[in-house]
């Protein structure tokens, strides 16, 4: 069992940056692919980015490509989401998730463990 805790969210002006972190309770992240999802107010939770358990492969949704970067540090038991050039459309609760799979999934149903989420609000 893996417990995930997100941090780093907050209120940012458009054009600003944030770095989200997700720390795991155990040193087992190397066996999990990790993903970031977000849920805007009143909308479905959607895929943002994911990274393979080795860190060698990543996927990023088109809407944030070039602005967001996912990375991981297995030694620190942490996955990150660097968010640059934030826009109001990025406002959402951001969740990290772990998938006990070799594959890098973009569908939330594949993920086994979820953090509690962290709010990101981008003001115009």
Account of the protein in words:
With 124 residues, the protein is mainly beta. Helices cover 0% and strands 48% of the residues. Strands 2, 4, 5, 6, 9, 10 and 11 form a 7-stranded mixed beta sheet that branches. Strands 1-3-8-7 form a 4-stranded antiparallel beta sheet, with no helix packed on it. A hairpin with a 6-residue loop joins strand 4 and strand 5. The model has no long low-confidence stretch (mean pLDDT 94).
What percent of residues adopt helix (DSSP H or I)? under 10%
The backbone outline, from C-alpha atoms, is globular
Which band does the percent of strand residues land in? Answer: over 45%
Structural class: mainly beta
The succession of helices and strands, N to C, reads EEEEEEEEEEE
Distance between the termini: 40 Å
**Structure summary, number of beta strands:** 11
What are the segments in which pLDDT stays under 50 over at least 5 consecutive residues?
none
Short description:
This protein has 124 residues and is mostly beta strands. The chain contains no helices and eleven strands.
List the helices and strands and how they pair.
Layout: E1 4-7, E2 10-13, E3 18-24, E4 33-39, E5 46-51, E6 58-60, E7 68-73, E8 78-83, E9 92-99, E10 113-114, E11 118-123
Note the main attributes of this structure:
0% helix, mainly beta, 7-stranded mixed beta sheet, globular, 124 residues
């Amino acid at each position: 069992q893996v417990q995930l805790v997100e941090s780093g969210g907050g209120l940012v002006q458009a054009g600003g940056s944030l770095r989200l972190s997700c720390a795991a309770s155990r040193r087992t992240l190397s066996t999990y692919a990790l993903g970031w999802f977000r849920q805007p107010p009143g909308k479905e939770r959607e895929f943002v980015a994911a990274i393979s358990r080795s860190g060698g492969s990543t996927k990023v949704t088109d809407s944030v490509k070039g602005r967001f970067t996912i990375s991981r540090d297995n030694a620190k038991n942490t996955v990150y989401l660097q968010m640059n050039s934030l826009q109001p459309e990025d406002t959402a609760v951001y969740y990290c998730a772990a998938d006990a799979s070799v594959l890098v999934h973009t569908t939330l149903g594949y993920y086994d463990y979820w953090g509690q989420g962290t709010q990101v609000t981008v003001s115009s």
